[in-house]
Amino acid sequence: MLENKGTSLLKSLLNAWSWLFLILILAFFEIYAQLGTGNTFLFRVYTLQAIALAASQILLLALGLTLVIVAGHIDLSIAFTTGFASVVMALVIRLLGPESGWLGVILSLGAGVLAAILVGLINGWLVAFINVPSFIGTLGTYGIARGIALIVAGGATVSIQSDEAREIGNGMMLGVPIPVLVAAILAIAFHYLLTHTKFGVHTYALGANRASVERAGVDVKKHLVILFILSAVTAGIGGLIYTGRFSAGAANAGEPILLYAVAAVFIGGASLTGGQGTVIGTVIGAFIIAVIQFGLVYSGLPPYWQFVAVGLVIIIAVIVDQSRDRLTGMSS
To answer: What angle do CA 134, 139, 142 make, to 5 degrees?
Structure first.
């Protein structure tokens, strides 16, 4: 009896480890700031905005990826789907000219989303209809999207002059940065999709046991295509925000964030084998990484240490996932 209670408690702690870890690192950096400088780390508007902006960048790549990973697949192409959409948006704004105003920006946003959808369609077709493993298929489109973005951009960033686009990337609404609002709205929508719809039920079931989903009459191929389109669209929106924020389109806009996006999903509780994961967990994972990024910079360490820290957290997440699976096997 005591052993069962201990196992149950340990399993609960493992399930909640990302929340506990977020609280721990926030407390660590707050204590460091108080002892080192006498100032607060967390309770400043600038700090909160900086962390939220960094987390929103990660989330825009990680939200759609969460659904793909829950279904038992992976999408490595999101990094350069972001860059492809970013370059397309910038080129359309250049073509229409700054005098096109909001109409030009809206058309460029639509073009960027369509570019992302194209990548998602190719990924979905490769995985669902050609049976290419998602790791290999999306690695291939990773290279294709990167190459096309560099070709159309002439191998350089595509600068733009558009106050309207700049407003999307740097503006505020209700005192909150617009990129943060966009990420929050998408997170709420994807959370609802995954937890309150048949689509979400089928996504979890697909990751747990594809054969049972097929026997239930679900069109698995169509479902997979939609999943990869959703992953590409959220990554593309990240590229559109990037163009607005930096007034330029760049083929490598999402490359530095790919590791963080994948890490956020697994830190948030997704399983390597599929069938597990939540949008809320991904949000927590994104904030853990954002706090680590800002906290290390605040501490005066070189930015390269961010990769080391995030890599260590990924390893911890995998160990937690394996330990949770072992405990589940013991209790079943």
So the answer is: 125
